[in-house]
Amino acid sequence: SQKIEQNSEALNIQEGKTATLTCNYTNYSPAYLQWYRQDPGRGPVFLLLIRENEKEKRKERLKVTFDTTLKQSLFHITASQPADSATYLCALETSGTYKYIFGTGTRLKVLA
Amino acid sequence: GAVVSQHPSRVICKSGTSVKIECRSLDFQATTMFWYRQFPKKSLMLMATSNEGSKATYEQGVEKDKFLINHASLTLSTLTVTSAHPEDSSFYICSAAPRGAYNSPLHFGNGTRLTVT
Q1: Burial letters for A50-84: b for 16+ Cβ neighbours within 10 Å, e otherwise?
Q2: A85-98 pLDDT, tens per residue?
């Protein structure tokens, strides 16, 4: 069956370090993958989109990679700040439907 | 731009009553809207896809008679939880896809916290 997993439910890192979050999927062949940030009691906010033919995408302190062979995406936040503390969700497009399925999320906490 | 407004943000209702949640795209037209349910510390579970002017497509296991979806215009979709029971208590979130923008980011509302007593 199709499955999306994000490596850990919670991740604590020290301010200034790079946070790396993982999204693994099985039995999908997504053409697109997106990363969202969600704060408690709020809806998700879009961060980055990467296409299957793109290896890497960057936006300011954020970087996303997409390895369709490993069926994995990595999400990096460099020079992390306490304000980056939130839950981060990966989402896969289920081919041609414009319907995204979300991963389980990773709660990131950046310690000052 | 691309703001989605969801209303109400919180609602408490008695068991057996119905509750309507509205999702509006404020500055763009949305041919497609999605409704999700989220349990505490869990991810978003897609409930249904709402297409303007046609019937919603429900995910497996979601009762269409329980969760009525109407997408009567390009800027408004509504979710009605009928005959609500305590197990329907949850965080419901909508998202909207801009018209003609396949695979652009989804724009989410801020969710509705439903508590059924």
Answers
A1: beeeeeebeeeebbbbbebeebbbbbbbeebeeeb
A2: 999 999 988 766 66
State which residue of chain A sits closest to B92, comparing Cα positions: A43
Contacts of A49 in chain B (CB under 8 A): 103-105
Residue tagged 């062979």 (tokens):
A69
- Kindly tell me if the per-residue pLDDT of A111 is higher than 90: yes
Chain B residues whose beta carbon lies within 8 Å of the beta carbon of residue A98: 32, 97, 102-103
pLDDT in tens, B100-110: 666 678 899 99
Residues 6 or more apart in contact with residue A101 via CB below 8 angstroms: A2, A4, A91, A92, A94, B46
The A residues from 36 to 95 touching B (CB cutoff 8 Å) are 36, 41-46, 49, 89, 91, 93
